[in-house]
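Tokens for chain A. Residues wanted.
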């Protein structure tokens, strides 16, 4: 298992390096004037000259990228702005603060939003899919399949505004979305995030219902499952000991990708509910022409997806030991 994880980690580091290089090239080599896109909307000629000097615009794109990579390990000095301690993902000249510091301030909200909603849609989505698989062709299966089809066709911005209007403004069933740190008040933390959790869960639950039903239906028709039934094992034992384990692989893969994406920033959800997370930070950075911040958020989002893919690989290895040889 250790060698398996080492190979995956090395591969992930290579992928992250490639992603960061391509992203850096797209952001700093393709635009006609990356300096203007980095110093914000209210950029005076003096500030623009300082930004150009700090970015090393006069040097090659390879040199600029090397200085950016070096800053991650040893930090970087930005003349006229200050020092960026390692790990340094760049400096936001629009906000006049290191990129990573701003991201870390927004990260707790995005983590709370991602982890809380994932618990909701994983429990309800997989649960509905299991019910539909066991009750194939019956009304429970038809209701679950129809609900998943409707849910997957809806959009977060539509559901979010409708839920805000009815559940918060009209009925007062749920609190206005807000963020309170979990360590300060767990009850306020949960109540403030309940509506975004449920909104995200409606979209994602539909995907997990269809996935769980499809995989379990396929596994229940396999020869080894029918053999287990013929030997007299109970329906519960056959379902959980054989069919469920065989169906876990694709569900784990989907969950790892979705969770990594959510941690990378749920832009639409955070914008709809006016929540200051990483997704909202990316939107604001584009609006303010804060290119270093956009680059930092992009690299972080890619890193989150890569990390959770490693976790998925490790879980796969636990489910099926043969994968460790791959």
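Reply:
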């Amino acid at each position: 298992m250790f060698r398996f994880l080492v190979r995956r980690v090395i591969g992930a580091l290579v992928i992250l390096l490639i992603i960061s290089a391509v992203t850096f090239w797209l952001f700093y080599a393709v635009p006609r004037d990356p300096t203007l896109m980095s110093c914000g909307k209210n950029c005076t000629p003096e500030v623009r000259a300082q930004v150009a000097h700090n970015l090393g615009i006069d040097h090659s794109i390879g040199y600029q990228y090397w200085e950016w990579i070096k800053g991650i390990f040893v930090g970087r000095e930005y003349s006229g702005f200050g020092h960026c301690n390692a790990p340094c993902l760049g400096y936001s000249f629009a906000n006049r603060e290191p990129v990573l510091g701003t991201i870390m301030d927004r990260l707790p909200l995005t983590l709370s939003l991602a982890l809380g909603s994932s618990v909701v849609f994983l429990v309800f989505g997989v649960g509905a899919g299991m019910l539909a698989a066991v009750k194939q062709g019956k009304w429970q299966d038809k209701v679950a399949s129809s609900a998943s089809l409707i849910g997957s066709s809806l959009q977060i911005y539509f559901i979010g505004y409708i839920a805000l209007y009815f559940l918060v403004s009209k009925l007062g069933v749920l609190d206005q979305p807000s963020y309170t740190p979990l360590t300060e008040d767990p009850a306020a933390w949960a109540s403030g995030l309940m509506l975004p959790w449920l909104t995200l869960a409606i979209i994602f639950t539909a995907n997990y219902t269809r996935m769980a039903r499809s995989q379990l239906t396929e596994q229940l028709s396999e020869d080894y499952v029918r053999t287990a039934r013929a030997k007299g094992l109970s329906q519960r034992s056959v379902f959980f000991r054989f069919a469920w384990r065989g169906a876990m692989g694709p569900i784990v893969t989907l969950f790892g990708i979705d969770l990594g994406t959510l941690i990378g920033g749920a832009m639409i959800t955070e914008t709809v509910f006016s929540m200051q997370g990483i997704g909202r930070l990316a939107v604001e950075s584009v609006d303010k022409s804060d290119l270093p911040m956009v680059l930092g958020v992009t690299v972080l989002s890619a890193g989150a997806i890569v990390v959770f893919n490693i976790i998925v690989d490790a879980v796969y290895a636990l489910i099926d030991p043969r994968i460790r040889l791959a």
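The beta strands are 76-78, 82-84, 91-92, 97-98. The first strand starts at residue 76 and ends at 78.
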